[in-house]
């Protein structure tokens, strides 16, 4: 579906401040290559300024690469813009594609005309999306009066009315409460599953990724650092699992041979371990009477932070 080979994009900028006017080259994307198959949901992650938007803009045809190859469904995005755009949908969390002063329903009608959606198909899609996203209560409301969550739902419907094969989502849940976030995620999972829509998702909310994407690509300073699934990411870069043990009484010596002691606070002692939890639990319970044990998984957020920090320190990770 998407093929990217040795993609580069540089921008010429002029510096401000003391060096005002001096030309500078920013390499926003450096030698990025990947393939995305039809029907995949891929999380595209990276800290601010990493090169995510620049990549997406090249994939949508808004920007022409400095060098390298991009093909989406057999088309070169910036050369075949019109045909390309008819096959993709995009939702940008920070701005809307809806007409600000028009009722949502009128915006959707206009998009139907822009994309020449057959009337029967339009009716089917509008009905399905109205149900799935509960658009009914605000179809008559102008975009400017919608809450952020309502606006996102309307934007998602707008992006999918013309049955695109590919959906770009840029921060689709930013600023939403947990319930609204979950509703958006459920909808995206639905269109992927039921309609086979391929999704490329940029987000700073890792719950979006855990919920939706089996695969993640991590970019920093324009270069791809990781491309793979989440469990492998955890296995390769995650910190150890933690075993939190509540002993019946504070142990005189909390150390257990074979386990790394992280902290001891009265009867509660925390150890680090890797692999399965059975052996550490056996070791601990053999040591002293235990009231309770909990296994704490390393969180994906911490893992990704370590990858970003590793890159800042210049560590080769991939
Ligand atoms: N039109 C432009 N002119 C000059 N520099 C640019 C331009 N667009 C992007 N850049 C620079 O390219 C780099 C990558 O920016 P990009 O917007 O792709 O990052 P991002 O990963 O999308 O970040 P964010 O998460 O903050 O949106 C940054 O250093 C940015 O300042």
From TrEMBL:
Q: Does the keyword Transport apply?
A: yes
Q: SUPFAM superfamilies given for it? A: P-loop containing nucleoside triphosphate hydrolases (SSF52540)
User: Which GO MF terms are attached to this record?
Assistant: ATP binding
Q: Which Pfam families match?
A: ABC_tran
Taxonomic classification:
Bacteria, Thermotogati, Deinococcota, Deinococci, Deinococcales
Question: Which keywords does this Swiss-Prot/TrEMBL entry list?
Answer: ATP-binding, Nucleotide-binding, Transport
Q: Does the keyword Transferase apply?
A: no
Protein name listed in UniProt: Vitamin B12 import ATP-binding protein BtuD
For the ABC transporter domain, which residue ranges apply? 2-246
**Matching SMART domains:** AAA
